[in-house]
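Researcher: Quick test of sequence recovery. Tokens follow.
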């Protein structure tokens, strides 16, 4: 699978500041709205749009390795994006010497 990698942060410490004591926060990368999530000392990037009815996940919570939408409380696995027969798009984070990169399937935005 061809990936497009976009640098979005300097370090994991800068992500921690972005979260500001919360477990998730909206973040824009390359003009696209995502949700940055920290759970069990690991960071995740998911699309900030619930696959159920399209709600923003800004006020979602993490429970048992899932991001739980505040609207109807469907949960989506942070590793796979699967939940309730739907799929929440998720994006890998790669640490490189010059910073952190988010990976997007090459045509996922088009
Ligand atoms: S809009 Fe997210 S669970 Fe319904």
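Model:
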């Amino acid at each position: 699978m061809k990936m497009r990698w976009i640098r979005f942060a300097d370090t994991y410490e800068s992500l921690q500041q972005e979260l500001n004591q919360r477990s998730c926060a909206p973040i824009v990368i390359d003009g696209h709205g995502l949700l940055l999530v920290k759970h069990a000392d690991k960071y995740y990037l998911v699309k900030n749009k619930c696959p159920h009815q399209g709600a923003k996940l800004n006020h979602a919570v993490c429970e048992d390795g899932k991001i739980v939408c505040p609207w109807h409380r469907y949960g989506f696995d942070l590793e796979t994006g699967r939940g309730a027969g739907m799929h929440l798009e998720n994006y890998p984070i790669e640490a490189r010497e010059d910073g952190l990169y988010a990976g997007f399937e090459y045509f996922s935005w088009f």
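The longest strand covers residues 32-39.
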